[in-house]
Specification:
Radius of gyration: 23 Å
Largest sheet: 7 strands, mixed
Helix content: 25-40%
CATH architecture of the largest domain: 3-Layer(aba) Sandwich
Distance between the termini: 63 Å
Number of strands: 20
CATH superfamily of the largest domain: Aldehyde Dehydrogenase, Chain A, domain 1
Oligomer: single chain
Number of domains: 2
CATH class of the largest domain: Alpha Beta
Length: about 450
């Protein structure tokens, strides 16, 4: 049995059963059999009806769903409420996409070879979708993987994080209550890593949607059966730049939110701040004062801003990275200590070495590193010296500076006068280099889970 614990005090919330080889085989065979119907058994009218019912169900249960997500994932309750509301909006987005989606007309009769023909494409589900998800947004990440599959007409097999399976189970139950046929969505929790790998490599899987660490994601991609498509969403080391023209009060408040929201356990969380030397002391003073207002505590307390890390082992890892940086000469401004078995203090480090782990890898914890710079272009070069590339931001009121940054920074998205963790669910969301493969976001995921099927009619 899998014991699901609350990250804050490690109390067992619920136990769920693992699945064995035979259980997985039954699910795969059922999903593949259903996929051969190509969505014709679950037409657009039925998909819209199910999703509209589900949207109403979620919208009327915001508080309960948020409490469940906070209990298993450790995100502060006020942020979990926002997560559930976002999830509901994601369902609405999928409904609108279904209503407005179409194929295209392909030009014919433009040369001898194409005479007397009419051609067009229509959307068809790609087949069986296997979705593997992460812990940090236990409700909304599942929405981003299950809902596009349902909207596209694909049967979907979903494996959530072992740390946070309860929100996923609740979503599936609510979908069934909303009228979703049970052969359209399956929950899996394999009893071993070997069984999970076999699931990924099975040739009955047509598309893999993975959200999690780069190490695991690229390994799983290498195991896919020939022909299986995939999308991978990993993490980054989001850099934010503050120039001399920036508003220091506004930037400090936004960067604290972007860096310490969900204890930094966000794939586009602010990890590195590059700060011009002429405003260094003034910004740091404001930034430190603002950070003191952020409260660390029980995620179910409405006053908590920063909750625990997902597992005690993560506290150990973050502590070791911070200790390494300090021993190598980084200046500790605040924090730098564990508060309990499950919580680490809000930490600011100044100028850690480029070779420190905290300067080379995603920390996924409540730690922000600040680097001083004289020349913006040199600082951009430093920021680009990592294997990850996701979102970046710059605080500046000089348009030439912003455009120069936009052109030179390694990132798939650049934000002006905002933190790097900004996201709305209809925009493209893509990691580059080691940060991922493909494009996330409801619209783009739906496109990945469908094919454009061509018909050429000859007179």
């Amino acid at each position: 049995m899998l014991k699901v614990k609350t990250p804050w005090d490690q109390k067992v919330i619920q136990e769920i059963e693992f699945q064995k080889t035979n259980d997985i085989e039954v699910i795969l065979e059922s999903a593949k059999k259903n996929s051969l119907k190509k969505g014709l058994d679950f037409n657009l009218i039925k998909r819209i009806e199910v999703l509209e019912n589900f949207f109403k169900n979620v919208s009327s249960n915001i508080d309960g769903l948020a409490k469940l997500a906070s209990s298993e994932g450790g995100k502060p309750i006020k942020d979990s409420i926002i997560e559930i509301e976002r999830g509901a909006e994601g369902v609405k987005t999928a409904i609108e996409l279904i209503k407005n989606e179409s194929g295209s007309v392909i030009p014919m009769n433009i040369n001898k070879a194409s005479e007397n023909r009419i051609a067009f494409t229509q959307k068809e589900p790609i087949g069986v979708v296997l979705a593997i998800s992460a812990f940090n947004h236990p409700f909304n990440l599942i929405i981003h993987q299950i809902i596009p599959a349902i909207a596209a007409g694909c049967p979907v097999i979903i494996k959530p994080s072992e740390d946070t399976p309860l929100s996923c189970l609740k979503i599936i139950d609510m979908l069934y209550e909303s009228g979703l046929p049970k052969d359209k969505c399956y929950f899996v929790m394999p009893e071993s890593l070997d069984l999970a790998s076999k699931l990924v490599s099975d040739n009955r899987v047509d598309f893999l949607s993975f959200i999690g660490s780069a190490k695991v994601g690229w390994m799983l991609r290498s195991k896919l059966s020939p022909g299986t498509r995939c999308a991978l969403e990993h993490g980054g080391m989001a850099p934010s730049f503050i120039s001399q023209s920036a508003d220091l009060d506004t930037s400090s408040k936004l960067l604290i939110r972007g860096g310490f929201y969900h204890a930094g356990q966000v794939c586009v969380s602010v990890q590195r701040i590059f700060l011009h030397k002429k405003i260094f002391d003034d910004f740091l003073k404001i930034f430190t004062a603002e950070l003191k207002k952020f409260k660390v505590g029980d995620p179910l307390n409405s006053n908590t801003d920063v909750g625990p890390l997902i597992r005690p082992a993560e506290v150990n890892r973050v502590e070791s990275w911070v200790d390494e940086a300090i021993s190598n000469g980084a200046e500790l401004i605040t924090g730098g200590r564990r508060l309990s078995e499950t919580a680490y203090d809000k930490t600011i480090l100044v100028n850690p070495k480029k070779t420190d782990k905290i300067s080379e890898k995603e920390v996924f914890g409540p730690v922000v590193c600040i680097y001083a710079y004289d020349d913006l272009n040199e600082a951009i070069e430093q920021a680009n010296m990592t294997d990850v590339s996701f979102q970046a931001s710059i605080f500046s009121n000089e348009i030439k500076e912003v455009l120069n940054f936009y052109e030179k920074i390694n990132a798939s998205a650049v934000f002006h006068n905002d933190h790097t963790a900004f996201r709305v669910d209809w925009m493209p969301f893509a990691g580059l280099k080691h940060s991922g493969y493909g494009v996330g976001g409801i619209k783009y995921t739906m496109e990945d889970m469908q094919i454009d099927k061509l018909l050429v009619l000859k007179k």
